[in-house]
């Protein structure tokens, strides 16, 4: 291998949310749903590069769960479930957000989000204690379901509608977030069912099916990736808050009394997973919940610092035996596990019990957005020498090669002298293992730019020398350095860079 001269170092800046949204659209990552009809609020489609990136992220999660742990198995439950599921889980009666309307702008807001934003403002101004008091008070009022108190807090904090700039608010009301529809062809026979608002319940109702068929012993986990639907009151911040989104959930079943250790274990593991995936430690933090959900004994969010501040990407919850006990009561089917291990205190088997659950619940779309925000960079670079020297800005996505939509682009330097044929040969030799593309159009610099914009880690150039000695140059996206290497080494070289094991060995 030989190296060409090293390019000069570059100064980099991160993108704003507006930069990232327009980049995502222009380069085929994310489109507004039904855009030709002016779009549908809070619903998005993933384009050709977006679907590859998202699939790679989901695969990394799936393998980190099911492949790395003998005691975690997968499931793909249906979106529709028996309506009693949602009665048992508490969603019919309690899955709601407190909303408030501004009478002048007619805009609707989540009361808790208005208060959280205000707390973030206090924090930004250095008034940490004031922010903490506000969040604690909000948590107390929401737990007590004191909606009048929540409104009073909004008034006391002098929170104004961002649109009308007035404090002319309605009362705070609860708004159920579940979407419902009908099953059954004839209206009279039909019954109301819901689009699942979380994937977790599909796991709980299958707890015994999975445990028995996969011959698992507690502690063990069930992992699932799937769509969830919530009629979010306020849709904003791009794919951060969607009405149709995807969750990646692990429900981990443990012996009662051991949930505290497992909660800490999964807290640590999941944060580390985000770090090895490329989210820097100083842009991640834990945030304990001010208000616990009805099912939770302990709950923490992993937050990432998006361009719009620290926000949740994953929740870790100690759910106790709430879900299985509820399903047992409504279905009248025992949800017990027989634990044959010996309890050292009694000298007898632990026997029958309803396991406790520790949940890790990550949003695939929020992870996608965090990855995109982290990867997006604008660099000022200097190219050429002497009078030819020029400074320009290049935009690139510094995606980990394992998640990049395209692993390598193959370019014949010119469209003649047998170079396109040689490039095609290389393309054919790599395409079974990696997603690679071939590009012949435009000057080589333009072709590099196009690949930088979508995060392709390697560009392989076939030139005159290739035809003589079967070597190519490999241009590296991040450093812009070029390496000459034999064609026979490409497969191993790319394979090493994109392999998941390089990420997993750090876990
Ligand atoms: N509307 C949504 N759009 C995209 N992802 C979501 C949405 N709601 C939840 N998620 C993802 O699912 C994960 C687990 O869901 P959970 O019910 O814990 O979220 P949540 O606490 O209700 O989120 P938030 O407080 O932001 O509404 C979240 O960490 C997030 O990544």
Automatic annotation (TrEMBL):
Catalytic activity as recorded in UniProt: tRNA(Gly) + glycine + ATP = glycyl-tRNA(Gly) + AMP + diphosphate
Residues in the signal sequence: none
Residue span, Aminoacyl-transfer RNA synthetases class-II family profile domain: 132-405
Molecular-function GO terms, alphabetical: glycine-tRNA ligase activity
CDD domains linked to this entry: GlyRS-like_core
Top-level taxon: Bacteria
SUPFAM superfamilies, per the entry: Class II aaRS ABD-related, Class II aaRS and biotin synthetases
Pfam families hit by this protein: HGTP_anticodon (PF03129), tRNA-synt_2b (PF00587)
Family per similarity comment: Belongs to the class-II aminoacyl-tRNA synthetase family.
Keywords, sorted A to Z: Aminoacyl-tRNA synthetase, ATP-binding, Cytoplasm, Ligase, Nucleotide-binding, Protein biosynthesis
Binding positions for substrate per the UniProt entry: 110, 198, 245-249, 359-363
Subunit details: Homodimer.
InterPro entries: aa-tRNA-synt_IIb, aa-tRNA-synth_II, aa-tRNA-synth_II/BPL/LPL, Anticodon-bd, Anticodon-bd_dom_sf, Gly-tRNA_synthase/POLG2, Gly_tRNA_ligase_bac, GlyRS-like_core
Cited function: Catalyzes the attachment of glycine to tRNA(Gly).
Location relative to the cell: Cytoplasm
Protein name per its UniProtKB record: Glycine--tRNA ligase
Family annotation (NCBIfam families): glyS_dimeric, PRK04173.1
């Amino acid at each position: 291998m030989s190296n060409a001269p090293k390019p000069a170092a570059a100064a980099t800046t991160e993108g704003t949310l507006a930069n990232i949204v327009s980049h995502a659209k222009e380069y085929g990552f994310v489109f507004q749903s039904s855009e030709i009809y002016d779009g549908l609020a809070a619903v998005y489609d993933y384009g050709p590069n977006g679907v590859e990136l998202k699939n790679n992220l989901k695969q990394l999660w799936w393998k980190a769960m099911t492949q790395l742990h003998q005691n975690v198995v997968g499931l793909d439950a249906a979106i529709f479930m028996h309506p009693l599921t949602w009665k048992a889980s508490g969603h019919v009666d309690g899955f709601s957000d407190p909303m408030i309307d501004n009478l002048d702008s007619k805009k609707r807001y989540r009361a808790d989000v208005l208060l959280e934003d205000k707390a973030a403002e206090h924090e930004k101004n250095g008034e940490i204690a004031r922010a903490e008091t506000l969040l604690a008070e909000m948590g107390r009022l929401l737990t007590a379901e004191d909606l009048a108190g929540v409104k009073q807090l909004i008034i006391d904090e002098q929170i104004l509608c961002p649109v009308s700039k007035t404090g002319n608010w309605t009362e705070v009301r609860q708004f159920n977030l579940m979407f419902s529809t009908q099953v059954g062809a004839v209206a009279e026979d039909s019954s109301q069912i819901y689009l699942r608002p979380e994937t977790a319940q599909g796991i709980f109702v299958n707890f015994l099916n999975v445990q028995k068929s996969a011959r698992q012993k507690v502690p063990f986990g069930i992992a699932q990736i799937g769509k969830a639907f919530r009629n979010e009151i306020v849709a904003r911040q791009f794919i951060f808050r969607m009405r149709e989104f995807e969750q990646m959930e692990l429900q981990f079943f443990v012996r009662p009394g051991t949930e505290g250790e497992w909660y800490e274990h999964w807290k640590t593991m999941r944060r580390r997973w985000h770090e090895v995936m490329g989210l820097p430690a100083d842009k991640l933090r834990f945030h304990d919940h001010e208000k616990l959900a009805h099912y939770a004994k302990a709950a923490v969010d992993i937050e990432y610092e998006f361009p719009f501040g620290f926000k949740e990407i994953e929740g870790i919850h100690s759910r106790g035996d709430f879900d299985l006990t509820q399903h047992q009561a409504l279905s009248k089917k025992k949800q017990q596990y027989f634990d044959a291990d010996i309890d050292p205190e009694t000298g007898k088997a632990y026997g029958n019990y309803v396991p406790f659950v520790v949940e890790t619940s990550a949003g695939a779309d929020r992870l996608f957005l965090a990855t995109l925000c982290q990867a997006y960079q604008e660099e000022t670079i200097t190219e050429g020498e002497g009078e030819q020297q020029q400074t320009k800005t290049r935009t690139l996505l510094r995606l980990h090669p394992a998640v990049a939509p395209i692993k390598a682009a193959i370019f014949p330097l010119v469209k003649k002298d047998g170079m396109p044929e040689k490039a095609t040969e290389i393309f054919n030799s790599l395409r079974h293992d990696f997603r690679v593309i071939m590009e012949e159009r435009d000057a080589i610099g333009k072709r590099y730019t196009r690949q930088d914009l979508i995060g392709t880690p390697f560009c392989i150039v076939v030139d005159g020398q290739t035809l003589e000695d079967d070597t190519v140059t490999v241009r590296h996206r991040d450093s812009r350095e070029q390496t000459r290497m034999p064609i026979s080494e490409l497969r191993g070289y790319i394979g090493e860079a994109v392999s998941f094991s390089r990420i997993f060995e750090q876990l």
